[in-house]
Amino acid sequence: MQDKKEEKANQMTSLRTCKDEAVKEMIFEDLSKIAAEIKGLEKQIEIETARRENITEEQIVKFLTQLADGDIKDIAYRKSLISVLVNKIFLYDDRFTITFNTNDDEVTITDVLLEDIEQAFEEKNFVY
Predict the structure, then answer these.
(1) From CA 117, how far away is CA 78, in angstroms rounded?
(2) What is the rounded distance in angstroms from the CA atom of residue 95 to the CA atom of residue 99?
(3) What is 3-47 written as a DSSP string?
(4) Which of 6, 39, 47, 88 gives 99 a disulfide partner, CB atoms 3.0 to 4.6 angstroms apart?
C-alpha cells in the first residue's frame, strides 16, 4: 500500500511539472491504474482485518496464566502446551530437532543441546 501511495505521489509531482499534453495523458492513465490498485489493496486490508479476531491484553494474560497453572499430568494440558509452544518436530533415526514458536525468530533445540541443558540442571541440582 505504501509503495502505491509513493508511486501516486511521484506521478502527481511529475504531472505538476510536465508541460507536454501527451505525457500528461499517460500520467493520468497511470494515476487511474494506481488508484484502482490502491482501492483493491484497501478492500483486501478490510477483508483481512474483518477476518482477524481482536484479542485483548486481558484475554492473553488469562490464557497464559491458565497455561502456566496447568496440571502436567493432564494429557489435554500437555497437548495444549505443545500446540502453543512447538512449531515443528523433526525425528530422525539417530537424533531429533524441535523448533519453538517465538516472536519473529525460530528457536531450534537439538537432542545434543537438550542433553547439555539437562546436564546443567543436574549439576546445579535443579528439579525439572
Answers:
(1) 21
(2) 14
(3) HHHHHHHHHHHHHHH---HHHHHHHHHHHHHHHHHHHHHHHHHHH
(4) 88
Statement: the pTM of the whole predicted model exceeds 0.70: no
Give the model confidence (pLDDT) of 109-125 as tens digits.
888 888 888 888 888 77
Q: How far apart are CA 33 and CA 39, in angstroms?
A: 10
Domain residue ranges of the chain, discontinuous segments joined by + = 2-51, 57-123
Give 15's contacts (C-beta < 8 A, 6+ positions apart).
Answer: 24, 27, 28, 31
**What amino acid is encoded at 14 in this protein?**
S
Grid cell for residue 34: 494506481
Cell of 19: 508541460
